[in-house]
Amino acid sequence: MLLLHTIFKKESIMKIAVILAGCGRMDGSEIHESVLTLLSIMQNHATYQCFSLNLPQEHVSNHLTNESTHNETRNMLVESARIARGDVKPLEKLNVVDFNALIIPGGDGVAHNLFDLALKGKNYTVNPLVKQKCLEFTQNNRPVGFICIAPAMIPGIYGPGIELTIGNDTKTSELLNNLGAKCFNCLVDEIHIDKKHKIVTTPAYMLAKHIGEAYLGIEHL
Q1: Which of 2, 90, 146, 194 could cysteine-pair with 151, CB 3.0–4.6 Å?
Q2: Which residues pair with 67 in a beta bridge?
Q3: pTM for the complete prediction?
């Protein structure tokens, strides 16, 4: 979050947009990462607004048994409201000119809902509206932060040449490098900054063993 103060030296309070993909690490946004993101924004004297896709989740998981539940559907916007305490808007209402930066927390559900890496591997695509909003922020010289597995969508949004980290996962790094990304290893409390494009990434639960470790990198971002 300190990066934001460097980039935007304004007297007004900074406003950060946060994109969620539901509620729960297996089928939506990772709850710890999402809440820590919101907390860190507030701790750095900024405000946030959550957004989500008004679409069904790709699947629904039982987080007690780690199994998918069949014949059940949930809506990403409705489920994201659990994290946002009801204050979440449809993603199409996100206007880049109203915000100083964008952050996308991770979770396995993000790799099912915001993009489909979990289903299609290297042939994944990013949801068109998610891609559009990320590009709008970058084209308007505003930083975008990606947490945990969310950085894996960067080549699908921006094309080749963007620097990022997903921690030290060799298999995922190789896949992303083959798609044109420039992957860097990072520790759990570290971030990587692509200064040219103002894209900031951190591993969080790609490496974190508990919520305290996840917090370190997210707060730094």
Answers
A1: 146
A2: 62
A3: 0.93
CA distances from 204 to 5, 196, 209 (A): 22, 23, 9
Torsion from C-alpha of 137, 129, 111, 42, nearest 10 degrees: 40
Strand-pair partners of 144: 102, 199
For residue range 35-92, list pLDDT tens digits in order. Answer: 999 999 999 999 999 999 999 999 888 888 888 888 889 999 999 999 999 999 999 9
23 is catalytic: no
Active-site choice (134, 148, 183, 186)? 148
